[in-house]
Amino acid sequence: MEMRGGPVIQESEIEKLKHLQVAADTYINLIENGAYGVRGDTRLQLLSEYRILGSAVKELLEIYEAAANSRGRISRLRFVVSRSRLHDLQDLQDRIEKHQTSIELILRTSISEKNAERLARIREYIGEFTMRFGTAVGAQTTYGDLLDLRHVPQEQILGQAAAADQLLVRTEGTQDIEAIWEKTNELQIQKKINEWLLKWLSFAVMHRRLEEIPQTYGSTFEWIFDHDLENADYSNFRKWLQEPRSGLYWVKGREGSGKSTLMKYIWQSPSTRKYIEQWQGSSELVTAAFSLWKVGSSLAKSQAGLLRSLLYTLLSQKTDLIPLAFSHHWSLLYRRMQDATQDPGRLNPPLVSDLVLALRKLIDSRGDSLKIFLLVDGLDEFEGDINAIVQLCKDIASSSNVKMVCSSREIGYEIFIQAFSGSPTLQLEKINTEDIEAFVKGSLESGGVAIGGKERAELARDITKRSEGLFIWASLVVTSLVQVPLEGDLLRQLRRRLEERPDGLTGLYDQLFRDIPNEQKEYTSKTLQILLEWVMVQTLYESESEGLESIPLRDLCLAEGKMAEVFRDPPVSKDEIAANCKNIEVRLQTQCADFIKVRRMGSGGTNVERSQLRVEFSHRTVLDHFEIRRARLRDFTKMTDLNPSLSLLKSVVHRLKILDVPESRQAIWDFAVAAFVYANNVESVLANQRQRDLIEEADARVGQLNASNDDQREANPETPEAEVNREAEKARQDASNYIKLLTELDNAMQKHHEKLLKTGDDWTTRTYLFGSKTRKDKGWQSRQLARVHWSNFHPTISQPLSWRSDFLSLAVQFGLLRYLSHRLDEDSKVVRSKKGRPVLEYALCPLDSLNHDLMSVDVVQKLLDNGARPEYRFQGHTCWKNTLEWEDTYFKTFTGNVSPRETERRAKLRLKVFNLLLKNGADPLVRCSLEARDVSFEEFLNKYFRQHDGEDLDAIKAIVSEANDKNERSWKTLLASFLGLL
Description:
Layout: H1 11-32, H2 40-68, H3 73-81, H4 83-110, H5 113-142, H6 154-168, H7 172-179, H8 186-201, H9 208-212, H10 237-242, E1 247-252, H11 259-268, H12 270-280, E2 284-291, H13 303-317, H14 322-325, H15 327-338, H16 352-364, E3 370-377, H17 386-397, E4 402-408, H18 414-420, E5 425-427, H19 428-431, H20 433-446, H21 453-467, H22 471-482, H23 490-500, H24 504-514, H25 518-538, E6 551-552, H26 553-560, H27 563-567, H28 574-591, E7 596-600, H29 608-611, E8 613-617, H30 620-627, H31 630-635, H32 644-658, H33 665-687, H34 694-701, H35 709-715, H36 720-755, E9 758-759, E10 762-763, E11 767-770, E12 773-776, H37 780-786, H38 807-813, H39 817-826, H40 839-844, H41 857-865, E13 873-874, E14 877-878, H42 879-894, H43 900-919, E15 927-930, E16 933-936, H44 937-945, H45 951-981
Parallel strand pairs: 1-4, 1-5, 2-3, 3-4
Antiparallel strand pairs: 6-8, 7-8, 9-10, 11-12, 13-14, 15-16
Helix pairs in contact: 1-2, 1-5, 2-3, 2-4, 4-5, 7-8, 8-15, 13-16, 17-18, 20-21, 20-22, 21-22, 25-32, 26-28, 26-32, 32-33, 32-36, 33-36, 41-43, 43-45
């Protein structure tokens, strides 16, 4: 019987469920006893599927029996589709259908046709009940008088919808793994696991630096394979390649001597493979190269990035060794993929310790039957524990089946001298004279210098001699000689200009800056400061996106624009920006060519979007030079409104506002994260508006730029009093614009979040399967999700909607104290009134993909002062306990990737935070999970902070000791009371 379309529980249905349960139990017994010839892993799979199916049927049977025992038809239907059972029923349907499919898949490939007939009967039972079950669930939207969904918490409904969405936005690698269930061939499964682990190792800019190193000029560097060349400055490279012994070859040289170009030539030259064959013999050879890059993203200059790149390249050539190198991760994925009850999920980023172990396994895997040739360029570009990278190179090169070529600067890096002094070596600036001379001759000729061949050769020799082996010095001097038209005695004028050029790069850069016309110095200084800020931000930006080593011309154009442009509605259009970009490109090439270059990353054309123009320092030495001259550069922009970080923040917000439809959620989140990092820098500048780095100020005072008195007066024409007033007004205006920009950022991100939930102008319609029927929600879910704040929808990290994340939640993760203070000024209860995950926990436990080094003690103090409490319990755990467990993961991640000094800084920061939390009610006797063990806070301290000291650690130990003593006294008192009662 049915009433108003609703199903009624029949006794026959319950009997069929019981029969299905008995059938599942019977199959379990048969398979356990070896029936049907099923063996090994297939047997275990099948048993697992039948047990879970039996469990799901049992639960559904209990619900139906309870419903059948209820009084009246309406009450029975209410019981089945009630709010309390709705989620359980949907979950049971999913589980039954999921495991039914898995059983079909296993039986189809492993069991005979006779057993397939039995399976068909099971499918018939399941089909009937899932269809009826689906109808019951479907009643929720048809029979509102029986189930009023208005009383179901919206958060619960959206939470389930968001969880489904998270499955749709998984990484490409995870989607590939899930697709494996369509193929049961063991080799295909193994291949997919290998592909996923290679993707796990790779990152976008892995080979970017090596690709962008300039090619050799003409026949330069061909001498590296000369058999006869050898002297005190050069251990013959060709002989080293051929000789049977392994080890390390060190290419050393001064900055700008051409080390990276030589390393790229060695890597690409067929001669390398030709001469190494003698060492290789009958063994198999695999090769890999990586170029560290200070101006790149964090992975481009870290030990993790180096190891991931080398392992990716090597294992791509020897995929059969992936299960050996990453045995734990490989078996983990294999188990997940063999068990339909488990979600393959996503792996955490590789730890340095795991990468080192994998490389060691790979090197030792085949003994002498596998030879490995490695090339690592730019060890001096490494950021982290330099001792760790040196020891790593020595350990790798000590293997009998590895040859390794490394390059680095020598001056200022005594650790390399000590470590590699016994290795074959090459002092590049001592033996590249002929290469530089050939380059200079060609440049003078191509530059149209109208002098005779003999005079040109003499001038080239003079420039080469003055260069002292520095390619970059020779290049800059030649450019400066030929770029200004000359009349009269050309050779004499060229020699006079050459004589005016100072030796060494430091003096040359100073002079080139000084030679810039006074009316152009302001623009050049402004651009250099923005580029310096861009580079500095990249060290804080934990992203694997491409192009972080250079700023898009479009972004530079927006950064240099007026602040009012971004607040216009609509803001400056794309056409206006394209026209401005063209003007700025010309200006950069005419006014800043000695220091900055514009690079075209895409194909030709005039469209800025297609051509992807990017702006970067012309050489690493330019960055090094102006990093310590920021104060002097600021002198030339004092009369402007320039704040480099604020300008870059404005650029990001502007791009978001003119973006039509985002390519993906990941794309807009990249914008947002960059904006928050810029915001962190803005706050630092505003907090120290009138402070200047002492070294920079000293440089400026002694005239490192050799500025004349006229230049000094032009750079700073104000009286001291006028300067103080102007800077105060500028700081006030910057602070106001900063808050406005963050508001614009939040609004723009929310609009794009809504766009991603639409198809064209219409809300995306979701289709749901109810048993054998499908229904569309007419965009209801999309409209509901659009009302939720965009910060709840990270592209790769699942955040339960019960967290109720908001803009402030993100701001505290990036240490934005000024913004937090602004929000507290608007609403003093904003911290205490937030529902869901507490604001303090966001500050202490940022999301995995965000930078973890922006934690601010001041932000934590501000939150504690305004009602945040470390013992606040959310979803069963306190903020304090979650913090300790998060710290455990954090310490594992950065260990080995940073210098001892940086490790000490981070440890002291954490100890200050712990001290604050303990003073504000955190339990010093708390226990937390550490590597699957339940440990005390005292054990946690001993594990991670035993090598550190300081007043904060002393204060923490005192608090813990006092708490332990108090706890012990309490127990003694309790025991004495108990004994007294006896």
